[in-house]
C-alpha cells in the first residue's frame, strides 16, 4: 500500500499526536541543507538539522554510495550486547581513531541520548556507592548535582535533571529532589560589567554546590552540566567556572559528567565542546549526530573494583545500540574526515558570528546577545511572544529553525553548511523580523 504524501498527516493522526512541522519530507529529493516538501516540491532551508542530529545534510553522495553497507546492517537487528560482528568492530575502531579521546577509553552504546545520560548516571552511582562501602560509609551515593535551565532527557533519572522553559516536559512525573544550582551564564558582547556579574554569579553557584555537598554528606555521586546549555537557552559558561567544577569534583569524590548529546561531533569546531576548555570530564554522554547513543568514561571509574566496565550486567540493554545507526555513523565519520568538516564548522561559525553581529546592529531594538561557538549559535529577541512570532514567520518563509530558552532562536546547521546557505538564512530572518516586528 502506498500513501499519498498529502495524506501523511491524516494517516498518522489516527494513531499519534501528529502536531509536527507542516512539510512532508521527500526522502529522495531533499539535498544538502534543503528539505523538500513531497506534497508540492517546495524547499525549506534547514538550520535545525533534525534537532541537531543531522551531520552532513540530506542525500550526501557518500551516504548514498554506502547504501549496500547500510542495507546489510539493517536486514537483521543483532543483540550487540552479546552477539558481535565485523561491522560493529569496524565502527568502534573508526570511532576510536577519530572522535574518542584517549582520556575517555571506556564506551557504552544504547539507543537514545537520554539513555546515554541515564547510564552515565548509573556509572557514577555505582562508583560512588562502591567507594563509600569500601570506606565503611554504607550504601550511599544516590544524588546528582545539576543546573537550572538544563535539558538532559525525558527518561527515568533524567526527568529529575531537566528543567527548561516548557514545564510540560517534566510536570506530574515522579522526580528526585536532587540539588539544583543557579547558572552563571555569559551574555554577549562580553564587557567588564558582564564579567563582573558573571564572576558574582559563579561564586553564588559554587557556594550553592558546596552547601549541597555539605547537606548531603557522602551522598553526591556526580555533577552534570552541558558544555553549552542547548534547549535551556544556548547558555555559555567561562572556562574558569569549569575549572572550579572540576576542582570541586576532585575534592569531594564526585564524578564530573558533561552532557555532549547536542554539542558533540564537530558543531562547535572541535569533536567535543568540552575540548574548548582546559579541564577534562570523567564521563561524557553522546547522541544525536552520533546516530547511536551512549557514553564515554575515563579511568577514574577504575578506582573501584568491579566497576560497571568490568562486571557483567551492571549496565546493559537488549540491543546495545543499533547496528544500522553504527554503520551510518561510521560513514559520517569518514565524510567528516574526508571533507575536513570540523574545520568547516569552525570557519563557517566565524561567518555566522559576523552575520549575527550585523543582524544585531541592523535591528538593535530586537536582536541582542548574538553568540556562538562554531556553528552552535543563537540570538535573543525581546520576549517569548516576539520570538514565537518570528519562529512562525520563519516557517512560513521556508526556514526551519528552533526556539531556545525563554526568548532565543538557535542555529543548528549541518557540518557541511555553506556560507551561501548561512547568508540566505540571515536574509530570511531579516525579512521576517521586518514583517512581523517592525
Automatic annotation (TrEMBL):
> What one GO molecular function would you report for this record?
pyridoxal phosphate binding
Q: State the similarity comment.
A: Belongs to the class-III pyridoxal-phosphate-dependent aminotransferase family.
Assigned EC number: 2.6.1.36
Under SUPFAM superfamilies, the record lists: PLP-dependent transferases (SSF53383)
Q: Which cofactor does the UniProt annotation name?
A: pyridoxal 5'-phosphate
Q: Does the keyword Transferase apply?
A: yes
Task: Name the UniProt key words of this record, in alphabetical order.
Answer: Aminotransferase, Pyridoxal phosphate, Transferase
- Which PROSITE patterns does UniProt cross-reference here? AA_TRANSFER_CLASS_3
Listed name of the protein = L-lysine-epsilon aminotransferase
- Per the UniProt entry, what are the Gene Ontology biological process annotations, in alphabetical order? antibiotic biosynthetic process; gamma-aminobutyric acid catabolic process
Q: Which InterPro entries match?
A: Aminotrans_3, Aminotrans_3_PPA_site, L-lysine_6-transaminase, PyrdxlP-dep_Trfase, PyrdxlP-dep_Trfase_major, PyrdxlP-dep_Trfase_small
Amino acid at each position: 500500500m502506498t500513501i499519498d504524501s498529502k495524506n501523511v498527516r491524516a494517516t498518522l493522526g489516527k494513531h499519534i499526536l501528529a502536531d509536527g512541522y507542516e512539510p512532508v519530507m521527500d526522502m529522495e529529493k531533499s539535498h544538502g541543507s534543503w528539505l523538500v516538501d513531497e506534497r508540492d516540491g517546495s524547499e525549506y532551508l534547514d538550520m535545525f538539522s533534525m534537532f541537531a542530529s543531522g551531520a552532513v545534510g540530506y542525500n550526501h553522495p557518500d551516504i548514498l554510495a554506502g547504501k549496500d553497507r547500510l542495507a546489510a546492517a539493517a536486514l537483521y537487528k543483532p543483540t550487540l550486547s552479546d552477539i558481535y560482528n565485523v561491522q560493529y568492530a569496524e565502527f568502534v575502531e573508526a570511532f576510536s581513531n577519530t572522535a574518542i579521546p584517549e582520556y575517555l577509553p571506556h564506551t557504552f552504546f544504547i539507543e537514545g541520548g537520554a539513555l546515554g545520560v541515564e547510564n552515565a548516571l548509573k556509572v557514577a552511582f555505582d562508583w560512588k556507592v562502591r567507594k563509600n562501602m569500601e570506606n565503611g560509609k554504607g550504601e550511599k551515593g544516590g544524588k546528582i548535582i545539576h543546573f537550572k535551565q538544563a535539558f538532559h532527557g525525558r527518561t527515568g533519572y533524567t526527568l529529575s535533571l531537566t528543567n527548561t522553559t516548557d514545564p510540560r516536559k517534566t510536570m506530574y512525573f515522579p522526580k528526585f529532589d536532587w540539588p539544583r544550582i543557579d547558572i552563571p551564564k555569559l551574555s554577549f558582547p562580553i564587557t567588564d560589567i558582564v564579567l563582573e556579574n558573571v564572576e558574582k554569579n559563579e561564586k553564588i553557584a559554587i557556594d550553592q554546590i558546596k552547601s549541597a555537598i555539605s547537606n548531603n554528606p557522602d551522598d553526591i555521586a556526580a555533577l552534570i552540566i552541558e558544555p553549552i546549555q542547548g534547549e535551556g537557552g544556548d547558555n555559555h559558561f567561562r572556562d574558569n567556572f569549569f575549572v572550579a567544577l572540576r576542582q570541586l569534583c576532585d575534592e569531594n569524590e564526585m564524578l564530573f559528567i558533561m552532557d555532549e548529546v547536542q554539542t558533540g561531533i564537530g558543531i562547535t569546531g572541535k569533536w567535543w565542546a568540552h575540548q574548548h576548555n582546559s579541564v577534562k570530564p570523567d564521563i561524557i554522554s553522546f547522541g544525536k549526530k552520533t546516530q547511536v547513543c551512549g557514553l564515554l568514561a575515563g579511568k577514574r571509574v577504575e578506582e573501584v573494583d568491579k566497576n560497571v566496565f568490568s562486571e557483567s550486567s551492571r549496565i546493559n540493554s537488549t540491543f546495545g545500540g543499533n547496528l544500522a545507526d553504527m554503520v551510518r555513523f561510521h560513514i559520517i565519520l569518514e565524510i567528516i574526515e574526508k571533507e575536513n568538516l570540523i574545520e568547516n564548522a569552525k570557519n563557517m561559525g566565524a561567518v555566522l558570528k559576523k552575520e549575527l553581529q550585523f543582524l544585531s546592529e541592523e535591528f538593535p531594538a530586537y536582536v541582542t546577545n548574538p553568540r556562538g561557538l562554531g556553528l552552535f549559535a543563537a540570538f535573543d529577541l525581546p520576549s517569548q511572544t516576539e520570538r514565537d512570532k518570528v519562529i512562525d514567520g520563519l516557517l512560513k518563509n521556508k526556514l526551519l529553525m528552533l526556539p531556545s530558552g525563554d526568548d532565543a532562536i538557535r542555529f543548528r546547521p549541518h557540518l557541511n553548511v555553506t556560507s551561501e546557505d548561512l547568508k540566505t538564512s540571515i536574509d530570511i530572518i531579516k525579512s521576517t523580523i521586518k514583517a512581523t516586528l517592525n
